[in-house]
Design goal:
The protein is α/β, with parallel strands linked by helices. Helices cover 47% and strands 12% of the residues. It is built from 13 helices and eight strands. It has an eight-stranded parallel beta sheet with strand order 6-5-4-3-2-1-8-7, with helices on both faces.
Length: 296
């Protein structure tokens, strides 16, 4: 946990206040508490928890293998590790509208600022994989309303994610977005493909009417724009979910292959964080100061 956490506003309240300010909010992707600490230490104002990264870190592709309790447990470790608000991928809510109510309560108790729930059928797939299936729009509307009714903190963010663009087309996605907005969702997150025309259609339809959440996916299936361009289109957040886990996979593979090739870790010395600095990612100096304070 973060040992000297500041007292004051809740994570959902701080997230609401950030959304009320002008300018786009950058979200750095995390898949565990260590990566979340790095997001915070790199001065990102928001941490977003990747469902794909969480699943991959458990040895599974993001196709519905990881259950709600595992995602909540991971979210709790992350929320305890950082001060910045955390938004978590809650997949489909793990069942029907009644299951969604329990899901919302569990994530609230974990200490995160909000969650996004998608309109896929279970077992779901990563938003940037093919073969997704959707539930009817009205079923998703019911889930959104159930989520809003279940939350104890009115600031807790319920983000409606729509995966219809690659399944039913942009017109259906826009219609679903309208339905989700009317149901009371706090933010709208429409997964995209590499089409500036479709991206503009989403922005023009919803900007100023509901905050828009943008996933700057490295899949190659979204326009690779600068954050300033995304902000100019009217999006409220720009989030880099999977970049950290994909970078970590490459770095681990490169280090292990170089050690195997050379038979010595000297070849990878400059690819690793220094040993003392490594411990400070998780604030060892602070723990030592507390040990001294309390006579441990």
């Amino acid at each position: 946990m973060k040992f000297t956490r500041e007292r004051g506003k809740s994570a959902p309240r701080r997230m609401r206040e950030m959304l009320a300010q002008p300018g786009i909010i950058l979200g750095g992707g995390a898949y565990d508490a260590l990566s979340a600490r790095i997001v915070e230490q790199c001065d990102y104002p928001l941490c977003v928890v990747t469902g794909a990264g969480t699943s991959m870190s458990r040895g599974y592709p993001d196709i519905g293998f990881v259950a709600g309790e595992e995602m909540v447990a991971n979210a709790r470790y992350i929320a305890e590790a950082v001060e910045i608000p955390v938004i978590v991928d809650a997949d489909t809510g793990y069942g029907n509208a009644i299951n969604v109510m329990r899901t919302v309560r569990a994530f609230e108790q974990a200490g995160v600022a909000g969650i996004h729930i998608e309109d896929q059928d279970w077992p779901k797939k990563c938003g940037h994989l093919q073969g997704k299936k959707l539930i009817p729009a009205q079923e998703m509307v019911g889930k959104i309303k159930a989520a809003l009714d279940a939350r104890r903190d009115p600031d807790f963010l319920i983000i409606a994610r729509c995966d219809a663009v690659t399944v039913e087309g942009i017109d259906a996605a826009l219609q679903r977005g309208e339905a989700y907005r009317e149901a009371g969702a706090d933010m709208l997150f429409i997964e995209m493909r590499e089409s500036m025309e479709e991206m503009r259609a989403i922005a023009e339809r919803f900007r100023g009417r509901i905050p828009l959440h943008f996933n700057h996916s490295p899949s190659g299936m979204v326009p690779r724009l600068n954050v300033s361009e995304i902000e100019a289109m009217g999006f409220s957040t720009c989030c880099f979910y999977a970049h950290t886990v994909m970078a970590a996979v490459k770095a681990m593979r490169d280090v292990l292959m170089d050690i195997k090739r050379t038979g010595n870790s000297l070849a990878v010395w400059d690819q690793m964080i220094p040993f003392d600095e490594f411990w400070e990612v998780c604030e060892l100096a602070e723990v030592k100061a507390l040990e001294k304070k309390y006579g441990v």
